[in-house]
Amino acid sequence: MGFRLATWNINSVRLRIGQVVRFLEEEAPDVLCLQETKCPPGQFPSAALHEAGYHHICDKGQSGYHGVAIISKIPFAQTSMRDFCDKQDARHVSVRLQGPDVTIHNFYVPAGGDEPDPQINEKFAHKLGFLEEMTSWFADKSAHEKGAGILVGDLNIAPLEHDVWSHRQLLKVVSHTPIEVERLLGVMAAGQWSDSMRKIIDPSEKLYTWWSYRGRDWEASNRGRRLDHIWARGGIENAVTAITVRKDCRGWERASDHVPVIADFNI
DNA sequence: ATGGTCGCGGTGCGA
């Protein structure tokens, strides 16, 4: 059967609930994973989503910062969330769907601040620590979490040369430094994850999901990065049939700085 | 040369 999943760093779900509903109407994914909902517990704009046909919502919010949610047409068999780095940040939720039997992990990895040195920048140290904890968790978890899995989210790292507008100019910029890329590849290896976006779109092609708010014309300068990811494992690595990056959403009125990414699976 | 712009919540912080 066809299964469609989308991921989007929405940068305030309450401010952009209209955009979320429009996206759901246009693309009709079975599941939408959001990051940076910035929405305190109990204030998630569920009613508009129910009206749009999405009756199952797993959200972990906090006031002002972070926040992740999974919005679904398909009921959940199980939901869970995990804290990382001994912080209460809302950076992970996970659901197992009732059918197809697939487990979905939705992550919002710390951005890491500006200075790519863990000795002087504790945000960067947090980012590296978060990735290390993901690695050890998936190294364990892959032993007992059986079956198909999908991991999505704003991972705040653009690992490949053509995931950024200039590999050379971004080598010392947080999101594209060698140490971050190495850690991200470590997470992938530990969980036996496969990069679904790059299975469809050749690594030689430039591919971005984020364009900064800073700077006068994001489209003309096109200095983007691929910070948002869709990974698969557990037998569905080769079931991806299409990837859609909705770049046009960056041009919407009062847009998020990230655009939605859609994956179609045949499972 | 070292900015620039967002969103939150009510000032500066995080991105």
Could you characterize the architecture of this molecule?
The protein has 267 residues and is an alpha+beta fold. The protein has one domain (2-266): Endonuclease/exonuclease/phosphatase (Deoxyribonuclease I, Chain A), CATH 3.60.10. 25% of the residues lie in helices and 27% in strands. The protein is built from seven helices and 14 strands. It has helices at 17-27, 46-51, 122-144, 167-170, 178-191, 196-200, 218-221, and strands spanning 2-9, 31-35, 56-60, 68-72, 76-80, 92-97, 102-108, 148-154, 194-195, 210-211, 224-225, 228-233, 240-245, 261-266. A six-stranded mixed beta sheet has the order 3-4-2-1-14-13. Strands 5-6-7-8-12-9 form a six-stranded mixed beta sheet. It has a two-stranded antiparallel sheet with strand order 10-11. Strand 1, helix 1 (17-27) and strand 2 form a beta-alpha-beta unit. Helix 3 (122-144) runs parallel beside helix 5 (178-191). The chain is globular. The termini are close together. It binds one DNA strand of 15 nucleotides through residues 11-12, 15, 36, 38, 63-66, 111, 113, 123, 156, 212-216, 254, 256-257.
